[in-house]
Amino acid sequence: MFKIIVDLFFLVIIQAAITPFIRRLAFVLGAVDNPNARRVNKKPMPTIGGLGIFVTFNIGCFILLREQFPTHELFSILLASSVIVLTGMIDDILELKPRQKMFGIFIASLVVYFLAGIRMDVINLPFIHHEITLGWWSLPITIFWILALTNAVNLIDGLDGLADGVSMISLTTMGIVGYFFLHTHELYVPIACFMLAACLLGFLPYNFHPAKIFLGDTGALYIGFMISIFSLKGLKNVTFISLLVPIIILGVPITDTVYAMIRRKLNKHPVSQADKHHLHHQLMKMGLTHRQTVLTIYALSLIFSFISLLFLLSPTWGIWPLILALLFALELFVESIGLLGEKYKPLMHLMQKVISSRSTRDPKVEVWHLGEEKPNQLKRPDKQFKVQDDKKNK
C-alpha cells in the first residue's frame, strides 16, 4: 500500500512536469480555443490538456503500477481510450459536429463491451431480492451509460478548473467507495480511480483560474469516458444501491446535463444546441466571480459525494427518504438559480400557493394595548367606542 501511495505522488509530479510541453504542442498543432459568444475566456487559450492526463495515467498503468492490472483488460481500455483521445484532439483542432463526436464515443464503447468485457449484465432489485438478467439489453444499456456519463463531464467543462476539480472529487469518492464499501477482490479499480485523480491534481494548477491551458474535449471526453468505465466495472452485477452511488457521486454534471436537455426541450431548441444557461453560467449571473463559482460547484460536488456515502451507510428502509429529500432539495436549488429559466419554477410556485392559501385561512390579528389608538384599518366610522379607566368603574 505504501508503494501505491508513493507512486500516486509520482503521478502528480509527472503530470505537473509534462503539462508545459503539452501546452507548447497545442500551439504547434493549432489546438487553440478562441473567444466567442459561448466562451468565458477573453484570449486564445491552448487546449488538448487532456493529452497530458492520458499520457501520465498510462505511465502509471504500464510502468509504475503495472502489476496491479490484468493485461488483457488494460490493453483493451488503452485501445478504447485512444479512440476517445483521438476524437477529442480532432475536435479541439478542427471542431467536429456533435454526431461525429458521439460516433467516436460509440466506437470506444463497443471496444469496451466486446474486447474488455466491461458491461452491465444483471440488476438486483432491493426489498424483493429479485435478480433481472439484462440479456441482449446489456449492450444498449452499457453503451447508453458510457455515452451519458462521458457527455455529462464534457458539458460541465465551461470554466477554468471546473471539470478538473469536480472529476477529481468524484474519482476520489469512487475510489473510497470501491476500496472500503464494495467487497470485491478487484482492487485495481479503486486504485485506477486514485491514479486518475492524482493526474487531475497535477493538472489543476495549470487549469485553475486564470488558466494557462484547457482540458479541451480531449480531456473532458477522456475523463468522462474513464469514469464511466470505472463505474461500470463496479456495476458488473448491479444492485440498486451500487447503481445509485455513481449517479449521486456525479450529481453535479448529471444534473447540469439533464436540466440542460429539459430546458432546451421546453424552449423548443435542439438538445445538441449549446447555450449559456448551464449551472456555472447561472451562478455567475447571480454575481459570483469566476473563482467563487468554481469553488461553489466544488462544494456542491462534495455534498453529493457525502450523500453517496450516506446511501451506503443507511439501512434499506432509509434509502427512499434519502432519495425523496435529495430530489426535493435538488429541484428547489435548480429552480432558485433559474436553471430551467425564470418561467419554469413549478415547485416554488406550488410552495407559494400553499403559503398564500394558509395565510388567507389564518387572518392577521392586530393587538393593541388599552388606552392606545385603535389601528386605522380596524376603525369603524358608524360606531364610537369609549374606553373607561378601571378606576372609574370602581
Features:
single chain; mainly alpha; two-stranded antiparallel ribbon; 5 strands; 65% helix
Task: Provide a short characterization of the protein structure.
The chain has helices spanning 2-29, 49-64, 71-94, 98-116, 138-155, 162-180, 188-207, 216-233, 240-249, 251-266, 279-285, 290-313, 319-336, 346-361, 390-393; strands spanning 32-33, 45-46, 122-125, 130-133, 237-239. By secondary structure, the chain is mainly alpha-helical.
Secondary-structure blueprint of this entry?
Layout: H1 2-29, E1 32-33, E2 45-46, H2 49-64, H3 71-94, H4 98-116, E3 122-125, E4 130-133, H5 138-155, H6 162-180, H7 188-207, H8 216-233, E5 237-239, H9 240-249, H10 251-266, H11 279-285, H12 290-313, H13 319-336, H14 346-361, H15 390-393
Parallel strand pairs: 3-5
Antiparallel strand pairs: 1-2, 3-4
Helix pairs in contact: 1-2, 1-7, 2-3, 2-7, 2-8, 3-4, 3-8, 4-5, 5-8, 5-10, 6-7, 6-8, 6-12, 7-8, 9-12, 11-12
